[in-house]
Specification:
The protein has helices at 13-26, 48-61, 83-93, 116-124, and strands at 4-8, 32-37, 40-44, 69-74, 77-80, 103-110, 139-146, 149-155, 161-162. It is of the alpha+beta class and 166 residues long. The protein has 2 domains: 4-75, Alpha-Beta Plaits (2-Layer Sandwich), CATH 3.30.70; 77-157, VC0802-like. Strand 2 and strand 3 form a beta hairpin. Helix 3 crosses helix 4. It starts with a strand and ends with a strand.
């Protein structure tokens, strides 16, 4: 199962596919694109967090190497795209947040009618950590909803690559 999600312009699927494979190859990461459609690629790599961290360093040196892709997000757990299942995954993953850690939740939606505000309310209610910090979190709970599936990860800020935010 894929452990990396990459978003891109849906009209540039071929160049995005090429960019994904070339960028990962340039950091010595073997990659397999499991599924690619509608501006979203599900990719399997050996270590998604390390790969994204390395890609972020590469992008900071030369943003021009990323012309077709937008966001690179490691995935730790897959589940269904229903609130109960996502709450279960979020509850499991929040164990990695220490009591003193500052955290926030980010949601990405693809081919889904779920309402983001409602999702954040329902998913954060199962988190037992007090220190929410939307500006400078130490940990990010990232939830991606892709059609009828969800992907959940607990990440440090340098483990997500958003080309637009560089």
């Amino acid at each position: 199962m894929a452990n990396l999600i990459v978003t891109f312009d849906p009209t540039k699927e071929e160049s995005a596919k090429k960019e994904i494979l070339e960028r990962l190859s340039s950091i010595k990461e073997t990659a397999k694109i499991d599924k690619i459609e509608d501006g979203l690629a599900e990719v399997s790599v050996k270590d998604a967090k390390k790969a994204v961290s390395d890609l972020k360093k590469l992008a900071l040196k030369d943003k021009g190497k990323f012309t077709s892709t937008f966001t690179w997000i490691p995935v730790e757990k897959w589940g269904k795209a229903d609130i109960k299942d996502m709450q279960k995954l979020v509850k499991e993953i929040q164990v990695g947040i220490a009591a003193k850690d500052k955290w926030k939740m980010e949601i990405g939606k693809h081919r889904s009618d779920l309402h983001e505000r409602e999702m954040i309310m329902k998913l954060t209610e199962v988190i037992e950590k007090p220190n929410v910090d939307l500006k400078n979190p130490e940990k990010i709970i990232r939830v991606e909803v892709i059609g009828n599936k969800s992907a959940v990860s607990l990440l440090k800020p340098d483990e997500i690559l958003s080309i637009a935010k560089l």
